Structures are given as C-alpha cells and as structure tokens.
Amino acid sequence: MVPAVLLGRCPRCGSGPLFSGLLTVRDTCPECGLDLRAHDAGDGPAMAGIFIVGALAVIAALVVDAKYQPPLWLHAVLWPVIVLPLALLVMRLAKALLVALQYRHRLRISA
After folding, report:
1. Where are the domains of the chain?
2. What would the pLDDT profile of 28-71 be if each residue is shown by its tens digit?
C-alpha cells in the first residue's frame, strides 16, 4: 500500500495512475478497471496540508527570523515559494492515502 500511495497509483493493482490531474482522482483505474468514484477523501487532505505544512512553515519562519533577521520582503517572497508546493505535495499524498485506506477497508458508500 505504501508504494501505491507515494507514487499515486491505484490501490488495487498498484500500476494504474490514481490521479487524472494534480489532485483529481480518476473515475476508474485504466489498468484494472477499479471504480474510484465512490472513494471520496473529503476535506482530509486540505486539513493535513493546513496542520502539517502550516505548523512547519510557522516554526521555520520564526527560526529564520530569529537567527538571520532577513527583511520583511524576503519573508514575503521566500515562504510562498516553499509552502505552496509543499502543501500540494502533502494534499496529494493525503488524498492517495485516504483513497487507499477506503479501498483496503472496503468502504461502501451508497448512492
């Protein structure tokens, strides 16, 4: 399960891509045909991004400010460049993990 999550692969076959875009889960796996429409990660990935990346960014910004005392404009340029890609990465991993866990525990969602 871990390699499928890290690589963004189908939780059943491990070879088909899970995402059709940056954060969009495919309707079905092109390799094994697994229906992925019922697997919904909800707001979990966004919350993971906020809590994990937000906490790390605040701590890092405080340490950098205390140690190096850069000008304010440097903070304004530096932190968005670091935080935005990191937040997208965490959200993608969290979404893949939640879909894989839902598949593993056979979550059935009635329509």
Report:
1. 2-104
2. 999 999 999 888 888 989 998 899 999 999 999 999 999 999 99
